[in-house]
Automatic annotation (TrEMBL):
This is Formate dehydrogenase subunit gamma. InterPro entries: Cyt_b561_bac/Ni-Hgenase, Di-haem_cyt_TM, FDH_cytochrome_b556_subunit, Formate_DH_gsu. Belongs to the formate dehydrogenase gamma subunit family. Residues 141-319 form the Cytochrome b561 bacterial/Ni-hydrogenase domain.
């Protein structure tokens, strides 16, 4: 008679202890208090007159009358050679109101709201563990090239998101905390990083999208994936190929809104191609709306791919995933490649031989 034994590492504990419950409750209270501060910051962002008092003091009703009637003289003109553009103009005021009254506050609500929802989800639902024990057999999923490309694009995205948020909101936080000297250095560094890394991100994003295109073509079973909330609704896991419905949605969001953000960023980054200030103003609004929306959704992608789902991060760090993970989350893909599964010993031998990838491995 054979006795089957399992180690504690193979069977994860799914029931949180009383200490974990207390910790989660305390974190929820902190989150609630922090949300009150976010509300106040959003209200402050929605006041366009607050910035106007320091950005352009002394603009009177008579000056606005002159601007709108075309009576402005050289003191109101752009100093560039042969430019007839008025530095004080109605379109600039429209841009300022859109940016300060709508884009800034609602963008802040979207980003911090998503972070709050994710935190609350983790506290209430917890991490998604595998339903069955790991088999220890590995399936190759991501090549070194694709992993390197993914992490490079991800690092650039996070850097651009942080510097962009600093450019938009940092003065309300860091200037108050550290003073003008530190704030001036931070905003200057953020601007340089954002301007120089943006084009690099755009080029590599296009390369990544091209490489992943064939695995992200929508299929009929993706609709069922969304109906089941990726497995949160109903029984069992919905069908999924190499990429599930959620991953495909993120891909096409990057392929549409992401490329729009890149294109508008190029308009802002290279003003020496003849685009006027009105074009730059609209590019700025489009860029901000798209970037803030992508940042909010990216938080969910990051959560699911790291602490939110057991086994997900392994594929993008080692290139291999456990058989159980593949069967539960990408069953259609698993059926195609299950005969290629190797043991941990075989994988270790490959690494010892200088390469952990199959000789016939494809980029994706």
């Amino acid at each position: 008679m054979t006795t089957l034994t399992m180690t504690t590492a193979q069977v994860p504990s799914r029931a949180p202890s009383w200490r974990q419950r207390c910790w989660r409750l305390c974190l929820m209270l902190v989150l609630l208090v922090a949300s009150l501060g976010v509300t106040q910051l959003a209200v402050a962002q929605a006041d366009p007159n607050r910035e106007m008092t320091t950005a352009a003091p002394g603009i009177t009703a008579e000056q606005w009358r002159q601007v709108r009637s075309g009576e402005t003289g050289p003191n109101y003109r752009d100093s560039r050679h042969e430019s007839n553009y008025n530095l004080i103009n109605a379109s600039g005021e429209t841009w300022r109101i859109l940016r300060n009254r709508w884009v800034s506050p609602f963008g802040l609500i979207a980003v911090l709201g998503m972070a709050s929802v994710i935190t609350l989800f983790y506290l209430v639902i917890g991490r998604k563990h595998l339903d069955e024990p790991r088999t220890g057999r590995k399936l190759f999923r991501w090549s070194l090239f694709m992993r390197s490309l993914h992490w490079t694009v991800a690092t650039l995205f996070i850097t651009l998101a942080l510097t962009g948020l600093n450019l938009l909101y940092g003065k309300f936080v860091f200037r108050t905390l550290f003073g003008d000297a530190v704030w001036a250095w931070m905003i200057s560094a953020s601007k340089v990083l954002h301007n120089y890394l943006g084009p690099m991100f755009g080029i590599l994003l296009i390369v990544l999208l091209v490489k992943l295109l064939k695995d992200n073509i929508p299929k009929k079973h993706d609709l069922q994936w969304f109906k089941q909330g990726g497995g949160l609704v109903g029984k069992g896991h919905p069908d999924a190929g190499f990429a599930n419905g959620g991953e495909k949605a993120w891909y096409w969001l990057l392929a549409t809104a992401g490329l729009i953000v890149v294109a508008s960023g190029f308009v802002l980054d290279f003003p020496n191609y003849g685009q006027g200030r009105d074009t730059m103003q609209w590019a700025n609004i489009i860029h901000a709306v798209g970037a803030l929306g992508l940042t909010a959704v990216a938080l969910g992608h990051i959560y699911i791919g790291t602490v939110g789902t057991e086994g997900s991060l392994e594929g993008m760090t080692t290139g291999y995933v456990d058989e159980t993970w593949a069967k539960e989350h990408h069953n259609l893909w698993y059926e195609e490649v299950k005969d290629q599964a190797i043991s941990e010993e075989e994988l270790a031998a490959r690494k010892a031989g200088g390469s952990s990838e199959p000789s016939t491995a494809k980029p994706s």
